Amino acid sequence: xxxxxxxxxxxxxxxSGFDVPKPIKLFEDCGFSPALMNAIKKQGYExxxxxxxxxLPIILSGRDIIGIAKTGSGKTAAFVLPMIVHIMDQPExxxxxxxxxxxxxxxxxxxxxxxLEAKKFSKNDGIRVAAVYGGMSKLDQLKxxxxxxxxxxxxxxxxxxxxxxxxxxxxxxxxxVLDEAxxxxxxxxxxxxxxxxxxxxxxxxxxxxxxTMPYKVERLAREILGDPIRVTVGEVG
Length: 237
Ligand code: ADP
Ligand code: MG
Hints:
Elements: H1 2-10, E1 13-16, H2 34-42, H3 50-60, E2 65-68, H4 75-88, E3 101-104, H5 108-122, E4 129-132, H6 138-146, E5 151-154, H7 156-164, E6 175-178, H8 181-186, H9 190-198, E7 205-210, H10 215-224, E8 229-233
Parallel strand pairs: 2-7, 2-8, 3-5, 3-6, 4-5, 6-7
Antiparallel strand pairs: 1-8
Helix pairs in contact: 3-4, 4-5, 7-9
The structure holds adenosine-5'-diphosphate and magnesium ion.
Adenosine-5'-diphosphate (ADP) binds at residues 45, 48-49, 52, 69, 71-77.
Organism: Dioscorea alata
Protein name: RNA helicase protein
């Protein structure tokens, strides 16, 4: 216990919440499948980043999380790797149903980066990732969604469009990620985010990542997360 607290202090890590799982040191400590370990090694990731050491055991235990860390700290893998475990844990992966994992990001560029990362990590397990953001025709997206997917990476506006068109259903969704929540709010996506969250079953696991925690984001987090653990890495504004 003392070691963990000294270690956190040295890296400017602050963690709060009930029954916080111990951080891990190695990807090998996560109990990942050989397929997922191979995908991680193939990416050239030798060991987890600071936020990954803290966040991976929390998320893998099924808890909700608020992750606050600056750009470049490795947040994408922190939410994508447990998402793959969550999906592979589902008893039956039927083809025709909607996504199990839903990731919202503020811009098409950010969503596209996440999409590429999610594809790399899920390829070995045959998990299908759908992209729902601008830069691709809505018709192509409709087709992609119709063939089925386990993960959707979306910008909030386009996802709402697809939900309105009934191109995608959230009945199977149990793992929701709001990435760069502060930027999504800056871009005016609060109503869309609320609408999306309202369409996903309340017993989902919810993950919120942000570089800063302005009041509006804090308020949303309190409303939509259940007993979250908050992890802050580094000095944040
Ligand atoms: P963030 O979302 O926090 O801004 P990213 O998830 O985009 O950060 O990661 C930043 C960069 O670090 C990416 O190029 C990613 O591939 C790389 N990266 C992430 N985790 C690791 C790791 N454990 N080892 C090495 N590189 C990593
Ligand atoms: Mg990121």
